Amino acid sequence: MPSNACVWRAISDYVPTGIEANMTKNTTTSLDAATPIVIVGHVDHGKSTLIGRLLHDTDNLQEGKVAQIIESSKKRGLKIEWSFLLDSLQIERDQGVTVDSTRIPFNLAGREYVIVDAPGHRQFLRNMITGAADAEAAVLVVDASEGAREQTRRHAMLLHLIGIRHIIVLLNKVDLLDFDQAKIEAVQHDVTDLLTRLDLKAAVFVPASARDGDNIAARSERMPWYTGPTLTEALVAVPSPASRAELALRLPVQDVYRFGDKRYVAGRIERGRVRVGDTVVIGTQKTPARIASIEGWHTAPQVSAYAGQSVAVTLEPDVIPDRGDLLHHRETAPVEASRVRTRLFWLRQEPLRVGESFRLRLATAEHAVTVTAIESVVNLDDLTENPGEEVPPEGFAQIILSASENIQFDPFTPGTTDGRGVLVDRQQRIVGGAPLVGAAEIAPGEKVIHPSASHVSVQDREQVKGHKGAVFWLTGLSGAGKTTLARAAENRLFAAGVDVTVLDGDTLRAGLCSDLGFSEADRTENVRRAAEVARILRDAGQVVLVTLISPLKSDRELAARIIGEGFAEIFVDAGLDVCEQRDPKGLYAAARAGKISSFTGIDAPYEAPQSPALRVETGAQAVDAAAGELVSFVEAAVRADAGQRKRG
Ligand SMILES: Nc1ncnc2c1ncn2[C@@H]1O[C@H](COP(=O)(O)OS(=O)(=O)O)[C@@H](OP(=O)(O)O)[C@H]1O
Ligand SMILES: Nc1ncnc2c1ncn2[C@@H]1O[C@H](COP(=O)(O)OP(=O)(O)O)[C@@H](O)[C@H]1O
What we know:
Helix content: 25-40%
Radius of gyration: 31 Å
Pfam family, one: GTP_EFTU
Organism: Acetobacter peroxydans
Distance between the termini: 35 Å
GO molecular function: adenylylsulfate kinase activity; ATP binding; GTP binding; GTPase activity; sulfate adenylyltransferase (ATP) activity
Subunit structure: Sulfate-activating enzymes, NodP and NodQ, may be physically associated.
Shape: globular
Bound molecules: 3'-phosphate-adenosine-5'-phosphate sulfate, adenosine-5'-diphosphate
CATH class of the largest domain: Alpha Beta
Enzyme class: transferase
CATH topology of the largest domain: Rossmann fold
């Protein structure tokens, strides 16, 4: 079907998003063919030396590399330092010589492997989610003379979290224990204990000296008592990644194209096979259809296609699926749930809290989801999973994502693309790796909510309005001029075409917050409600001017957290003496007379902002000038980015 070139261009242009894009960026072939192995271990336990030694002993080093290592070692007065190999690979990477930044391919007994290198702890965490989570097996390197250490525990925890199935423990540096069987077995015992606590089981323990090559590719003559495999034998015994073609069919719809009287449903088969004549079920609507034909790029129509192939199928009847719908066979349906348990790796700089909403990308599908529970947060220091209010940056947690519609997925399985969700924020930035582990059951008595999110994009709103949404939080004493300023600015901004709303304390307290007084708790609740409303208006693209005394720093921080991006604190600054002298509502006089209590500045505190985004001096300045300052600040903040985005 050459006339359909653009269908195929569209398919071949398709780059899997998020994690998968990172994961397959340089490994599209290796993911299918090679066995990924991640090598982890406490610093100085011999990971780099092991990689160098392994590549050398399995004849996987380029010509000249060995000579180079010998030369560098000699220069430093050392015998031969295998870890220099990794250093030299690192230098090449830094210089951009090697394309592949985290993967070292090697060949063993005719089988392809790829070492997933994890240079530092932080990168390691990231890699585990963005790149290495597909590792089929792990080699956990433990210095036998030191035993399991802090990072050994962390790494073991990570292997547990990402579900690595095959673990080889390399007890390294056994020469330091004089190859003594009893001593080595004692270490093995300790490591077994650690793994058992994490529900992990080592496939094999290999006592070795990576530096000298004992039990790496050749059997050590210095440990005749050891009858198990060498490291290379253990690697050969790692099961091959399961063939994705043998799994149940999953064809996520990438797009639907119409040519003449035919409609083509295009996508890449993630797993399984599809044949002409098969009946498939489409998406959560479960519309049945028959595969009428399977078309290929520059090939004759096919009778069947399998995992990894990009295809365009025609359906009978001619139904129109949506992008993201999954085509599957009826008898092997994916999990379907609107509440999904997720093993999250959080990448954003600010912590994650319940109530935040994102897009969940899953293959070609996108779902609006809200974090409705943080079930546990992993403490990476002691490997415990504890209840938590928030997930710190680079933290792991088990959370529940709720959507307003059903999500179809296969639970996350290492080595496959199953369940690899990615959380994306309003600005399309990836903020978390979110492997979906299963449907979340409803706990008895639980408050179950499924917030929905707008389908109108932030960019589209900005385009139409000509500015972005933002919240300007005006804080200051009663009588400082918050309301006066905001109302004056509202007039001017509106005249300039800005969609602007003022949320004023007195006004809110007449309605939404009429149940609240002026105790600290009530003021906090007042601030929270105003911030939530402001967030909704901001999300709808409006410029919101909030005028609340909001006397406490902690309350303003709460507002900033609720609102997130686009929050600016404005200090409307007039001294207490000025405000009291003005006393536009007679409240200071009433407070002095004891008619009202807990009045800010008199018998309740006001904590002035230390570093506001803008300070407007309203003590001596005229209203007009002060409002001008605010208007300029707002205009600059909401127009600049919107313009850039338009151009982009
Ligand atoms: N005890 C006491 N303390 C402070 N303010 C009082 C009090 N009693 C009534 N008022 C009136 O309520 C307005 C302040 O409401 P806010 O919602 O801005 O206050 S807060 O942010 O919750 O602290 C405030 O409005 P502004 O003068 O515009 O600030 C007053 O009109
Ligand atoms: N530069 C200024 N900015 C704002 N208000 C000012 C300024 N100079 C004098 N005022 C007066 O101060 C009073 C502020 O009252 P208001 O706006 O209700 O304060 P708040 O909302 O902070 O309680 C008004 O009477 C206003 O006319």
